[in-house]
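In line with agreed milestones, the collection of sequences with tokenised folds has grown. A representative record is reproduced below.
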Amino acid sequence: MSDKVVMEVKRVPTGIAGLDDLINGGFPEKTINLVSGPAGSGKSLLALQFIYNGAKMGEPGIYMTLEENRDNVERALKNYNMDISELEEKGLFYLMDMSEIRRKCPEEDLEAGIAGFEALQNLLNNLLDYTGAKRLALDSLTAVGLYYGDNPGVLRRELFRFASFLKEKEVTALLVTESLEDGGLTRYGIEQFVADSFIVLGLEDVKGELRRTITVRKMRFTKHDTAKHPLLIGPTGITISAESKVF
């Protein structure tokens, strides 16, 4: 009887206190990971920390923002004691402000020229090669999907094509989307189906006080914790209480 060969999955640690404990050490390498949540739940901060912590570990990464401008992102980084100036000089942290391009683009050119997945793919195809980035955060899919209007079929097709492109580039990606107030886990209801992992952030009203939570709903290629845990935002960003559960 032949021995079975067990392939060990290489991990890409997020560096976020408590999160790596929930996902067996980090995201599986070269996978597409999705984080969703309502406004104020911490999803953009989580994406920023993923890229920043990777850069501090020596892994170049790209944080691409399609909604917040560079000034706001830098302000957020500063608020949580994340200094990217030296990391940018070393080619380890790339902050791409697509929102500025969108603001200057004529209205009629927004979908085809800026906000569509094809345009992002064309940009990233060269950018990933040039930077040698191992990590990518895209904030957010919501901003891209808006410009497909009433064509959910086209949005679905283009999103799957974009996901295939990211797989081909062998980058570990973290995509951000928003959840809906009516209980929908993602803005368009399809984002979670292209992702290898799906993390949901919550913002719950408990006795008049908002409480942030995190749940890992899906993660291919690995065992993971499926319970709901407290998520705290402090002076250095997000920390997760992996040993505590929310009921």
Q: What stands out?
A: Residues 11-240 form a domain with the Rossmann fold fold (CATH 3.40.50.300).
